[in-house]
Amino acid sequence: MQCNRLQATVQDVAREAQVSVATVSRVFNHPDRVAQDARRRVETAARTLGYFPNASARTLRTQRSRVLGIVLPTLLNPVFAECLQGIARSATAAGYSIVPLTTEYDLAQEERAVNVLMAGSADAMILVVSNPASSVALQRLDAAGTPYVLAYNRHEGHPCVSVDSVAAVTELVGRLARSGHARIAMVSGQLAASDRAQQRHRGYVAGMEAAGLQPQLLEIPFDAPAGHIQAWIARADRPTALICSNDLIALRAIQACSREGLAVPRDISIVGFDGIELGKDLTPVLTTVVQPNEEIGRAAVEIVTAALAAGRKLSHADSRWLAWSFRDGGSCAWAGNPTTGRSAV
Amino acid sequence: MQCNRLQATVQDVAREAQVSVATVSRVFNHPDRVAQDARRRVETAARTLGYFPNASARTLRTQRSRVLGIVLPTLLNPVFAECLQGIARSATAAGYSIVPLTTEYDLAQEERAVNVLMAGSADAMILVVSNPASSVALQRLDAAGTPYVLAYNRHEGHPCVSVDSVAAVTELVGRLARSGHARIAMVSGQLAASDRAQQRHRGYVAGMEAAGLQPQLLEIPFDAPAGHIQAWIARADRPTALICSNDLIALRAIQACSREGLAVPRDISIVGFDGIELGKDLTPVLTTVVQPNEEIGRAAVEIVTAALAAGRKLSHADSRWLAWSFRDGGSCAWAGNPTTGRSAV
DNA sequence: CTGTTAGCGCTTTCAT
DNA sequence: ATGAAAGCGCTAACAG
């Protein structure tokens, strides 16, 4: 047993086990094609030497890296952190490694990320892009034949895993309206920067129209402070309910109301969108449209690994729609006519 | 220009540019050692063919992958998500990719992660382990000569980047005591499961002793519901201040108080530890000991990449202590004698 | 300044 | 069932 080598190779194991390198390789890749006896010797030798197949060599030879490239906006938003957690877990279970790259919602970084990942020979990719319709990165992937799936995005031309957020917000507005809310506003991040925000807004408008109510939208920068929202609601005919296009904005909205001297949910109701886990631990619990974030990650991994196994490319037909749900917390008052029994906390 | 090849190689570029493969390689690795003319031709050819150096081949040849392995408990806790964000950003800036693996606070997964990463030939590693003193994974790394640094952990025998949380909590207790709080309790996750929790507890005990107060500890499972805490504080001589060993526990504590009919901070003060960004957006703002989480990630990357560049191994002497600070939010009332001017919100 | 060439560690025909 | 040998794409001597 020699320990001075940095990392044992097939050669070392072969020598130690008195077999050829081919046999060592077979033990690790097709154990059934090796005689009991030889296999045992190889396994012992490998353990003794602390041998692990070198991933780069294997990748170079097989042209498959068992690496999934992940492109997402930021880990600072728990939605994406939760999704990545789901991806990480199921990738590991499926024998894949992941290489995540963040884009900070920046198009140039999005493209750079895809380039890096292609050079790093990721077998497949999972990405959250700002605009599927115009992404040149996706075109590159298509051209290269690399399987990929979009998460949270929604577009006819690409495989996507997401929830029907249009329907979710439409239904949410309906509930709010039926329970007596008439002035229901939406607070959203920049619509131009994200197709998710656009979908949610579309659902909002549809719901308001169906209820015969007048939509009103406040569009704020991603990093807008609470003061921005506070100024907007500081008026006599302020909304009685605020639908926020994501949970982070909902937190700021609650803060804005509080500073304005408004009690949540007595004076004003706040609803978020995303269903971040943390929302459950807030006081009051954040009422929100729950997306199964970890599940979305898991499904994305399933889709691309299945494509890899089958050697297929992916198309929009492979898209998956996951179920959303409402979390009925204490941040929203169902004025007259609560839909569910009672709110948490 | 041919586009039917999946991925162009040095050979293709060499042919197109009428030079040898060595020259192509040089253009990408030592541009200054190539004549203007040849370089231009290679660059053009590369762009035309959409050539990117194959990472696996390069890794195999140079024995350096420019990959950083990251091992952390979970992305569901924003502390680690924020840290990973810092790691991702600075790794990208330094030309490194990252491969994160989560352990779910499980020792077996911790070891498996290190094995996977070593086989995947990570050049260096950044990890958050449960117990540096007894980690066999770290021994393997030492034996292999792979540079690594621990984040959040603190141990004499390893290079660490962290904050002095013992001092932080000690000082926090002092402030609380001086401002009039006498019944100051700590709510912590399982001490045995994390050296971070142990440090914070040690700081708490030291602070209480210095103030001549009686420590009282509630130790709860990681996923304990708010009811657990609620039951504990449901008594006449309940604490007037709760120091929670992390921000997630602080959120649950606030919920517990609320359910118990206690107003925060009027009836009871809550302080967290970690400084997750989200805490700023809560109502009331979460009072907490702020760790510079992204900065910790950034520093960890700096340390390992410096070691890689210098070809050195890392030791405890390379450890870095970053500054912590207090975030003075509205979840804590400084009874008589507030330390800072006024609380936020 | 440039080209030739030998491997990095592995998997996989193709023989035996 | 096993071994010999070729070669994945790249970089770094070494020669010129």
Which sequence of strands runs across the widest sheet of chain A?
A: 2-1-3-4-5-11
Strand and helix order of chain A: HHHHEHEHEHEEHEHEHEHEEHEE
Helix count of chain A equals: 12
Q: End-to-end distance of chain A, in Å?
A: 63 Å
Largest interface, Cβ cutoff 8 Å: A-B, 54 and 55 residues
Care to count the β-strands of chain A?
12
Described by strand count, sense and barrel closure, the largest sheet of chain A is: 6 strands, parallel
Low-pLDDT runs of chain A: 1-5, 338-345
Molecular shape of chain A? elongated
How does this model look, in words?
2 copies of one chain form a homodimer. By secondary structure, chain A is an alpha/beta fold. Helix content of chain A is 42%, strand content 16%. Chain A is built from 12 helices and 12 strands. In chain A, the strands form 2 sheets. Chain A has a 6-stranded parallel β-sheet with strand order 2-1-3-4-5-11, with helices on both faces. A 6-stranded mixed β-sheet of chain A has the order 7-6-8-9-10-12, sandwiched between helices. In chain A, helix 11 links the parallel strand 8 (241-244) and strand 9 (269-274). In chain A, helix 1 packs across helix 2, helix 5 runs parallel beside helix 12 (293-310) and helix 10 (226-233) crosses helix 11 (247-259). Chain A is elongated and about 85 Å long. Chain A starts with 9 loop residues before the first helix and ends in an 18-residue tail after the last strand. At the A-B interface, helix 4, helix 5, strand 2, helix 6 and helix 11 of A face helix 4, helix 5, strand 2, helix 6 and helix 11 of B. The structure holds a DNA duplex (16 and 16 nucleotides).
